Batch of 4 targets.
Target 1
Amino acid sequence: MAETAVLSSGVAAPESRRRRNWVPYALLLPGLLWLVVFFVLPMLTLASQSLQEGNVDDGYTFTGNISIYADAFSQYWPQMLRSLLYAGAATLLTLLLGYPLAYFIAQKAGRWKNLVLVLVIAPFFTSFLIRTLAWRTILADDWPVTQWARKLHITDLLQAVGLTNNDSLLYSQFGVIMGLTYNFLPFMILPLYTSLERLDPRLLEAAGDLYASPWQTFRKVTWPLSLPGVVAGTLLTFIPAAGDFVNAKLLGNTQTTMLGTVIDAQFLRVLDYPLAAALSFIMLITIVTMVTIYVRRAGTEELL
Amino acid sequence: MIAWIRRHLIAFAALAVLVYMLVPNIVVAVFSFNDPKGKFNYTFNEFSTAAWTNPCGAQGICESLGLSLQIGVTASLVATVLGTMIAFALGRYRFKGRSGTNLLIFMPMATPEVVMGSSLLTLFLALGVPSGQGAILIAHIMFCVSFVVVAVKARVATLDPRLEEAAADLGANPTQTFLRVTLPLAAPGIAAGALLAFSLSFDDYIITNFNASPSSITFPMFVWGASARGVPVQVYVVGTLMFLLALVVVMGGQVVSKRRNRQVA
């Protein structure tokens, strides 16, 4: 869409475009400069900080101490693993929960469409910390959710698979994954909605006319056509979820800390800057590698 | 009966997910009328409008709200100007370095907040920039720019270039064309980008936390601190007001865009 607009206007006024070809660069300069200085440059100082030795009082000197990375891995691999597992689980859950809602808004909601969209977007504009704190009330032991979960033996099941430590739901791995799922659900629903809205309902009718079962129609028509939304949604959910430590802190316990928890603590309380920087750099490299492989394999590089 | 349920299975699933997404907001609204027994507002004790009639009653809450508003407005204004310029360059011109620009815009959205916050802290440490309001502002502008670019670019891409050509044919110079035709047409995208930037800035805790000083407590930092010490009911009042405001703004946006579309058609 953007490309055709550029091309057609370029054809219409080739002379003026050629004469003023400094204009795009002038438009880009201030914003890109800001990103280079305050986004790219910090990545370099982060890498540099991780290879320095010293302390806060006497200052740091660059020693190229690469062994800090071995220390970081051996000390904090459980947190790294947990971050990836929790974020992965939350991403799967947001996809499972978000898909029906996105499909409903895009294809079935009719005159309710705008209202439902508002109800999906509006919570996103309300402080996520306050909404996360509300789960401490909703999942409290004396509230119906936990009561029903106990009656239906869901708490026993969660405890058996190790997601909770007792017959409560709060302050457990379950709590953290539930919180991450809740917090990042809108990031999954909106891209899914965008690609499902473009889905021509006549394609679904055609599949039905050709004797495809509803499941076959979904698998062969709906799902493949919604893939750009699935890829965008999983990225927008997984990346922030892997770096999050708010849910682990507010809805988890000391056994559910994530890599973000450690980076935050090492930087701001322990003040071990080299170790903290190394951990942060490991997270950056891990995420960038995973995202690159994922986007390549999904074959939708033009996505964003 | 069973056939009816089967036919509306997706609607039921959608409704259940919607409830999951909205229950916390309802709880926040209900608990803003609570008179809690202890320091924490987690169990409902007694109905009270005390927090609503005295919203600044919790020490530090209104100062932190003021600071968040100030940072949010400044950061979203600067980010909207920078982001809109980039979006126009990407949407209206062909130039070398396009894919590099796209990558640079995409990267901040694909980087975990902890990494951005902590790396910015190492830059400020290296340069001797003190943490506090200025550092927070720099950080917020940085992570908001990309979102503005995406919002505005989407709108610029849908604009019909023939409208601008028509303006030029009718004797408008490039500045007049931009101010009278292009900018008004792109305005919904710019407004959406600015709104998104403001709410991202206003709600940010993770990046802010890395660049704040004890004298620059934003509202999310206040809430975070309160979650450990005891949450005043006023926090729930602010949460409820934010939700209501968001409902009004999002619905208002839809009404305006509907009316505009009708005018065009």
Note: Chain A is about 75% helix and 5% strand.
Target 2
Amino acid sequence: MKTSNTSTAICLSAAAFFSTSLAAAAPAPAGAPLERALELELALARRPELYLVVDTGRRTVEVKVRGVVLASITAEDAAVLHYRRSGGEPAAPGAILPAVLTVTESGLDERRRVVVARELRPYPDGTDGADAEPPDTAAPAAPAAADAPPPARYRAALDGGWELWVGQGRPGPGPLARLAQAVGDGWSRWRGEAPEPRTVVGLALAADDARRLHHLVRPGIRLLVR
Amino acid sequence: MNAGRPPAERRRTARLGGAGAAALGICLLLALALSGGRFEQVPAAAGGGVEESARARALRRQIERQTPGGTYAVVDTYANRLRVYRHGSLLREAVCSTGSGFVLRDTQGERQWVFDTPLGERRVERKTRDPIWVKPDWAFVEEGVTPPADARERMDDVSLGDYGIYLGDGYLIHGTLFQSLLGKKITHGCIRLGDEDLEYLYRNLPVGGSVLLY
């Protein structure tokens, strides 16, 4: 009985705790999001770097440079998911999208095969370098890269507290991840800590398309999400 | 306290205690989850079906003006394909080889090389027939040999094939002695082509022309 009373008290306290609100941004004027998206893309197209355009409305991911579409992937589903604390205001239309984000961390480097040269022999005197084994002799070792195909499910950290989740099925975090986020955030709220901004770009892609995209999701690559 | 109770009663008390603790834990998790929040889908920024403004059309034209004119090459480093376009029309498609993605680590010199083909746009800086490769340090380290001090020991006039198309920072499009390995990710970052495709590219892609790599 005592246990039940304690639980009820916690639940009631939680229910009374919905007070923090997110600052709502000013609504964007009609038609502005498309123009803003194009302005952002123009800035990207003026540079020689590769960029990805994620269109959640059309469910497409385009690989582009200089405005040229190099590859286009149709997603099974695509969504931008913004984490909102209970009692907080929903984000105003146009306050989050469009956005340009940079990949800050991906698992690409951790999956690389590392060859370590531990001891080097002295270069043989009087030997012509051109007559030595050609550099392509490293090639036979390389096909081992095919032993580990790129993953079909992966995540990458983007700047500004954003994340990219690529997988199959429902885009973005699954039920357990969502529960964990809510519990973790609830705990930090009880401790009086400020919320950490979290927005997820979720892409549900066919496994082959996810693998194809994987090698492009590397630190420094920019995403235009609209 | 429990010492005088019968064992059955002690077990029942323990079960009730366990169930109560579990209920408390679930309640606590629910309370935390409820006081936390949830993910909400953000509507797409630029939906279709709306007539574009003059400003939007002007922006699209500006983006189109960034695209390379004339003849340019596109390299798909995932599928290991090189395509040649002129004014957006496909002229030729070739099998190529691109960077292995391997890391070579020299523990003595504490140096490291990543064999990636660069991504994005590169411009053809120059083109040569019968290119000579000045082997960089990694080519020796990879073979387990200390790089020679004499620059003449680094000259290789065989490995690059008949033509070299220089893209800057030591990256080239060149030929290969190992044509059977075309189509694989095996290079140190350069793009290797078969003899006929290399000659075609050498003759058709001008100096200053774009190479778009993804």
Note: Chain A touches chain B through 105 residues (CB under 8 Å).
Target 3
Amino acid sequence: MPIIFREPGWEPLRELEQLQRRMDRLFQSGFGLERAPWRVGVYPLVNVSEDRDHIYVRAELPGVKSEDLDITIQDNSLILRGERKIATEEKQVNFHRRERESGFFRRVVALPTLIHPDKVDATFKDGILTVKLAKPEAAKPRQIKVKVA
Amino acid sequence: MAEKELQPKAKAEVPTTAERVRPGRVFLPAVDIFETPEALVLVADMPGVSGDKVALDLKENHLIISGEVGPPMGEGETMVEQEYFTGDFHREFHLGSIIDQTKIDAAMKDGVLRLVLPKVEKAKPRKIQVKVG
């Protein structure tokens, strides 16, 4: 005769249900279309996107002049350095609001794939910096045909 | 002058008052507002907004600033890492002084809007001479 050990209060079905609910929550929070932005804590915040041939790194830098911005590629990282200057107004002005900030920034962005260091293109339009980096042949997606035997 | 390192700040979203037709988020632009003896000057950070996409509306002393942004990515791109959200900008103000509507000057450069609102003659401060009798 088989002996079944049973702990008082052990309900396997309910535990399964709980696990299911927890998994659902995990999928909803982590794999939804719109994730909460990553917390990095370094200015400027960047968005990285890609298509077949390029990687695009974008940052919002309103009021930064292109001569105050320094972009470097080092190994597999993109380094953004610069300074945001806010024109000092004459002394006789009185402020109602002062929310805009000035200062310098240094940010390293790790790139998701290898890139061509000499095929980098940066544009600055309406306060948004876009750095376009070309992927080398090896990093591009390839279609593999299945041979029919 | 001591150097200051910039800290990242997530843009604040506009509290919803009415339903929007255009999809997407709406943010409050960070502003500086200051007053000179002649005018009220408003400077707003609106990255991604070009000069022709800014709308200004001034009724009596109620000022509305809004700006539309273009698509956040080019066609065929997929997001790999997203640290900030993009969306339109909107902010409203009640102005304390009376503005000369005919002389308003607005300029958009590098994603920064600069609005000069000249005060009408009677709102300008005057020094009052005290007569000694």
Note: Chain A is about 15% helix and 35% strand.
Target 4
Amino acid sequence: MAELVYRRQKRNLAKRLAPALQVGLPAIALVVMLIVIFWIRPTAMSYFGFTLLFKLAVPLMFAALAQMLVIMLGDIDLSIGSFVGFVTCVTALYLDTAPMLAIAIYIGSIFVYAGVGLVIHLRQLPSIIVTLGMSFIWLGVAIIILPAPGGAAPAWLSGFMAWRPPLLPLPVLLAIAAALIGHFVISQSSYGAVLRGAGGNPRAIQRAGWSITMIRAAVYAAAGLLGLIAGITLTGLTTSGDPNVAPAYTLLGVGAVILGGGSFTGGIVSPVGTVIGALTLALAGSLLSFLQVPPTWQIGAQGGILFLVLAGRILLAEDKS
Amino acid sequence: MQPSQAAVDTAAGLLIEARGIRKSFGAVHALVGVDFNLAAGEVLGLVGHNGAGKSTLMNVISGAIQRTEGRFVYSGQAVDHWGTAEAQAGGLRCIFQELSLCTNLSAAENAHIIHRSLRGFGWRHKARRLITKALDDIFPGHGIDVDTKIADLSIGERQMVEIARAFTETEDKVRCVILDEPTSALGHKPAEQLLAYIKTASRRGVACILITHRLNEILAVCDRVVVMMDGAIVGDRRAAGLARSDLVGMMGNIEAPHEQAAPTRNASQVLTVNHAGIDRADLPIKAAPGDIIGFAGLDGHGQRERLRAIYTATRKVPVAFVAGDRSVEGVMPLWSIADNLTLRSLNALQKSGFVSPSAARALAQSWSQRLKVKAPSIDTPILSLSGGNQQKVLFARALASDGQVILLDDPMRGVDVGTKQEVYQLIRDEAERGRIFIWYTTEFEELKNCDRLYVFREGRAIAEVPGDKIDHNRILEASFGGADG
């Protein structure tokens, strides 16, 4: 009997370690990539090197967190890439010259996101269709206000993105902050449990007296807010607006969520994993450049890295059961 | 009479008082004017056929669906809109037949779902303590880790968490718990523990509504029994002095006397199933054509795993499987009865790669008639059927197939007495024709239909009981490990 209890505890320990392992694998991949890069170019192992390597990962990370919120509900957001593009246009055009207008558009777009969540929930529409439609709308509106890439980011914004805080490079600092806040809100807080529950078994949440309608609207609004941050930080980096700057964010974001231990069934997501996943995907591009893979092969090779890490994760998941 | 009746009720301090409740889904009248009341601390048994309207009535009372018509008084206050939030705030909890836990969360996190006050720093610790205490109170020695995801627990353990959660209290006191087939997924011991706890809770003033097809449980714990039929209450009696046969009589079907176990067939027949165990302590499962083999023992002791192993290992003859966990591994939720029923026979129904629609319909028609599936037509979506009728369709799927070995994974969960008797008869008839049934069940009564039993403990078949020696004590003894446990 005692042995049975012991075995049970061991099994539970393995189960508790499993999520850590799932986050751990992309983290290991990230470290391996960094080691390879530092081996080829030891000078990259510096404050400046880290800033350069992860600079472009910042907006992707926020877009991936936005995608994570939507995937948490069991939905998918195909519009986040064009939304980020739209935000860069608004930021580059108006934030400097007409800040009030820019802020009004920002707030309005968050409401639109909440509205999309409401429509999906109330009409029971598939999110994949609604957000696909929304992606064309965001792209169209962005092209209307800014037909060709241009505009200028406010000086303070590009200044902020180029800021060099002491001790840690800005991208690393932002990544840690985003991962910690996300972990606290989604994985630790009591509301996070309800949100994840809403993805896992919405009926149970509803029967316990929570409003799924409100939850969906709020989560979509939060996804919109994160998309907004992604767009603003991206403008700070590129210093101009471009409707077509970020279409890849949609699927790279999905990749980051899944890489970080998330699941399409809803309710199973990890903010820390997502952030690490986004960093891994962003670094994969740099790694290939360092390895002098010709640009024509880079996209394919990036896909190969994604495939390898995901396959590893699945093998690991099977192993523990 | 009506006013004086009301006066009496108010004096008695009723918790729930419902008058003339009607509920229609389109043209279907699920409830046709039900008068229902429940006193504080009362234990009420609710029985009736599948589709009698029990679940609908409970959904109305719990606020999950809105009544079409009728007056509803909760705790002395007439309520107009009664939703799940109001029910929750009023201390009314439900344990539904299909689990209402979030399987991606832990037991502690699930406790928060119904307790909003568990928040701020240290909420997780409080939630853990709350649910652990409830589990310890109701199911002493349960051995459930409250930080494990529900998805990683067995179905019996999930049910225990769900029940324990319903009895947890923070700000709002629990005043009434509705238990819909709570013991169907539980093993013998947890079921007894639960019944004992319901009595304790009722002394504390917590009212319970117990819906179950296990009439002995009703007679063991309930103060009053309400019988429903065709969307109306047809009987309302004190439970004291009531016998099992009275209850069955009130439900309107005559309980067939238990037949003696089918005559044992000659042993000279060739074994169709001969499935070796995982080690020497694990008995091989042997079955010849015409055998009905039972798997007994406490829930979650390896019976399901063994059924699955047999399913994979049986290659020579066709096998069919009847799932107990309908929603997960049984029904195709969006398909009609006919599509669900013919799923296992598509190979037999095909002609040069195309399924013959007329043959498929004929097969579905004849089998849904044989099993008396209660539905307007075989094109009805399966989810519009009651649980018992869905289960009949799953049975028909296996029986209509070419399967010579039919594996039953506790298929009678939440099925009413009448249906059960029909299905038992059908199983015996089919066995006469040479089919083999391997039947895992958590109900002792059902084991009496078997020719031979294997009792499971800790993942192994540890005892074989011949048909004429099947009795309660013997099985219990083997499940608990006899003298050495």
Note: Chain B touches chain A at residues 62, 64, 83-89, 94, 96, 99-105, 109-110, 112-114, 118-120, 123-124, 127, 143, 145, 147-149, 152, 458 (CB under 8 Å).
